[in-house]
């Protein structure tokens, strides 16, 4: 990354908290690296980004984010290779996407130089928080919230952009059971499903809680109007393998355009695996499962990379997906990780040195 021209205000921690962290036993999202970045939008301008010790911040109860949910976020990871070099995976994609999300939520776009200069400085300061080794990473969470005080229902005139980082090990390591949505919806036509808007998550917790009470882990959301087409998992995009072909839904205004999804589509092409990007009908998948042609379902997202689905429920019936030999999911996960940890050639130029 080349962002040396931007001025940042940096206040370093006096003593690192790193010795208090058991890196062999991390709970995702419970521990945060020493520093964080914040940058305020005031009077129509993004101010100088500040890097400060991670810690609580003060907001008035009337800050608009608490009332109208004007908030977007990103999720990305930094990886350390065996030589100690830190890499980011397709960070431009995350940068572009947070601004796409912001635009939809009437949040001003964040300058590219501010973003990359801050990220670079943060990773330099907190480089020891990125651990070597398979499955280890620093999960990076950029986000923006509306900070104007006042409960009038209109877009805010102040915002705060922040970046925090938490050390992560393999996120979900066990296969999951899912249910195909028949009642609730995650996103509607013309809505904000394509954006990483905070409210998309808030709205899926209740239906997901109901699914968990039935012993299922996650919901595969279907299109809101007919519930006939499978769209995504709500934190991950989703792939289906029928015979030797991969099938995934095209992105639209209800589906998040995942970096992991598009990388897997590219890797599939590189490896002569046929990928069909087309509407995935529930009927087709259920029939394929009955006929034994449905070989795999897997989710794809930054947090978990790839997660195997071991079975799904639809219309009160549970379908088991028996483990198979040489699953695509495992292949794509290790291919992606090999690139992310700089263990193989990176023909598409996806990895970027953090500093
Ligand atoms: C973040 C996210 C994904 C996965 O996107 P990646 O860029 O691969 O991490 C998928 N669906 C939703 C709704 C998401 O928020």
Commentary on this structure:
Its cofactor is pyridoxal 5'-phosphate. The chain has 355 residues and is α+β, with helices and mostly antiparallel strands. It folds into two domains: 9-168, D-amino Acid Aminotransferase, Chain A, domain 1; 176-339, D-amino Acid Aminotransferase, Chain A, domain 2 (Alpha-Beta Barrel). Helix content is 23%, strand content 29%. It has seven helices and 20 strands. It has helices at 65-68, 91-104, 112-125, 198-213, 259-270, 282-290, 328-340, and strands spanning 9-10, 35-42, 45-46, 50-53, 71-73, 76-80, 86-89, 137-146, 159-168, 176-180, 218-222, 229-232, 237-242, 245-248, 275-277, 280-281, 294-301, 305-314, 317-320, 351-353. The strands form two sheets. Strands 1, 2, 3, 4, 5, 6, 7, 8, 9 and 20 form a ten-stranded mixed sheet that branches. Strands 10, 11, 12, 13, 14, 15, 16, 17, 18 and 19 form a ten-stranded mixed sheet that branches. It is globular and about 60 Å long. The chain starts with 8 loop residues before the first strand and ends with a strand. Bound molecules: pyridoxal-5'-phosphate (PLP).
């Amino acid at each position: 990354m080349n962002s040396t021209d931007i001025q940042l205000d940096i206040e370093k921690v006096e003593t690192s908290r790193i010795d208090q962290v058991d890196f062999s036993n991390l709970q995702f999202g419970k521990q945060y690296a020493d520093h964080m970045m914040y940058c305020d939008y005031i009077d129509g301008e993004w101010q100088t980004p500040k890097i400060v010790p991670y810690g609580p911040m003060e907001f008035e109860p009337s800050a608009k984010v608490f009332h109208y949910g004007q908030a977007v976020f990103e999720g990305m990871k930094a990886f350390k290779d065996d030589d100690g070099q830190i890499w980011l995976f397709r960070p431009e994609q995350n940068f572009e996407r947070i601004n796409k999300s912001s635009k939809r939520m009437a949040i001003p776009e964040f300058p590219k130089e501010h973003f990359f200069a801050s990220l670079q400085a943060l990773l330099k300061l907190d480089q020891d928080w990125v651990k070597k080794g398979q499955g280890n990473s620093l999960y990076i969470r950029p986000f923006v919230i509306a900070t104007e005080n006042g409960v009038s229902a209109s877009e805010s005139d102040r915002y705060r952009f922040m970046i925090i980082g938490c050390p992560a090990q393999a996120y979900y390591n066990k296969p999951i059971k899912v249910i195909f949505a028949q009642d609730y919806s995650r996103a509607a036509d013309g809505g904000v499903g394509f954006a990483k808007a905070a409210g998309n998550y808030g709205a899926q917790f209740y239906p997901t809680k109901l699914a968990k009470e039935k012993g299922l882990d996650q919901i595969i959301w279907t299109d809101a109007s007919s519930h006939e087409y499978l769209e995504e998992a709500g934190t991950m995009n989703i792939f289906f393998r029928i015979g030797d072909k991969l099938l995934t839904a095209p992105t639209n205004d209800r589906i998040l355009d995942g970096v992991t999804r598009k990388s897997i589509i590219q890797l599939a092409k590189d490896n002569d695996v046929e990928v069909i990007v087309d509407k995935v009908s529930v009927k087709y998948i259920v029939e394929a499962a009955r006929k034994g042609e449905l070989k795999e379902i897997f989710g794809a997202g930054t947090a978990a990379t790839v997660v195997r689905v071991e079975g799904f429920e639809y219309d009160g019936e549970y379908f088991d997906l028996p483990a198979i030999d040489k699953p695509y999911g495992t292949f794509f996960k290790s291919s992606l990780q090999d690139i992310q940890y700089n263990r193989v050639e990176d023909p598409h130029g996806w990895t970027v040195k953090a500093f």
